[in-house]
Amino acid sequence: MKNIGVVTSGGDAPGMNAAIRAVVRVAYSKNFQVLGFEKGWEGLLKNTFRRLTPRSVGGIIQLGGTILLTSRCPQFRKREGIRKAAETLALNNVDGLIVIGGNGSFKGALELSKETNTSIVGVPATIDNDVFGADETIGFDTAVNTAVNEIDKIRDTAISHERIFIVEVMGRKRGFLASTVGLTVGAEIILVPEVKCEKEKIFKTLKENSAKGKKSGVIVAAEGIGDTRKLAREIQENTGAEVKLSILGYSQRGGNPTARSRLLASLFANKAVELLSKGRGNRIVGLQEGEITSTELERSCKTKKPLDLNLLRLANILAT
Ligand code: F6P
Question: How far is the CA of 73 from the centre of ligand 1 (A)?
Fold first, then answer.
């Protein structure tokens, strides 16, 4: 192993920079060189990269976003794009490639692994926390804290005006972010795509709350449940409560990574370089029951990470 490539791909997540920094510094400690491909898979299609040194990644551990830039790259879904990326790896003698990203990036990595001799290791970084093989992904804790800080403020105004707020959080088609955020803000109701949304039950809960003196409330809804604007209207019509919708949006993807996100980034990157140095590729690193582990890339791509429904049950008990 001489040259390691690193790329950040898909939606950015706070802690990606901490991961890049750790990849470079651990790699150098083992006498490997590092090429940072720019703008996600686009860098491999266009052969655009910069040489990263321990000094060049100084002062970035605390920064959100990714210094390498990122993108969603439709050409990479086509065989021709994958072949071009494999050529770029061969041209630059890249022995191992570290892909920092989420599920979409890992699916791309899996396709690429079929066309190249370069060993590939995935480092899970996404605010959605939906990667199988990683109990927690880089950036998730930061996004949870960002959302919690915002919702605490929304709670103040909800109480003062005796209003119901639906707060929509990100998470794509999954409810990991919504369930953790919902429990930790004390949401009256949490809505996730994994559980059928029973509107009558929502109306009943809110009416019961109102009858027992709880006139305000926060509903945390995952974006994957569908049209929250329509839901807000329906709740207002059926309960008589004043209902407001607040879509938190892209602020959840940015900001300084929390200590937790930086720690995971450093541990995951260290494990990724270690795997490559032992010639082990086609895996993703992760955290499982408190241990830094690794899982086959293909297995991670093809297995749906289960949502812990106990969290929702507990949140329900706590919201009385
Ligand atoms: O995967 C991270 C994420 O922020 C999702 O939560 C969200 O659905 C999606 O990316 C938004 O993607 P884009 O940045 O392409 O709008």
Answer: 13
What domains appear along the chain, each with residue ranges and CATH number?
3-139+257-302 (3.40.50.450), 142-253 (3.40.50.460)
pLDDT score of 1 more than 80:
no
Name the residue among 236, 212, 234, 214 with its Cα closest to residue 162: 214
> Quick one: angle between helices 79-91 and 103-113, nearest 10?
70
Take atom 14 of ligand 1 and give the residue whose Cα is closest: 11
CB 190 within 8 A of CB 201: no
* pTM of model > 0.70: yes
| Nearest atom, ligand 1, residue 223 CA | 8
CA-nearest residue, atom 5 of ligand 1:
172
**Which runs of E-coded beta strand occur in the chain?**
3-8, 33-37, 49-52, 96-101, 119-124, 164-169, 189-191, 217-222, 243-247, 283-288, 291-296
**Pairwise CA distance, residues 194 & 200, whole Å:** 18
pLDDT tens-digit series, residues 128-140: 999 999 999 999 9
pLDDT reading at 312 higher than 80: yes
Pocket test for ligand 1, best of 170, 177, 225, 250 (most atoms within 8 A of CB): 170
* Three-point CA angle 305, 308, 314, nearest 5°: 165
- Over residues 296-307, the pLDDT tens digits come to 999 999 999 999
Residue among 125, 128, 93 nearest 109 (CA): 125
Q: Is 135 helix (H, G, I), strand (E, B) or coil?
A: coil
CA angle 41, 43, 49 (to 5 degrees): 140
Could you tell me the two tokens for 191? 């809505």
The CA 170 to ligand 1 mean position distance, Å, reads 7
| pLDDT tens readout for residues 188-233 | 999 999 999 999 999 999 999 999 999 999 999 999 999 999 999 9
Q: Whose CA is nearest to atom 9 of ligand 1?
A: 172
pLDDT digits (tens, 9 = 90+) for 174-190: 999 999 999 999 999 99
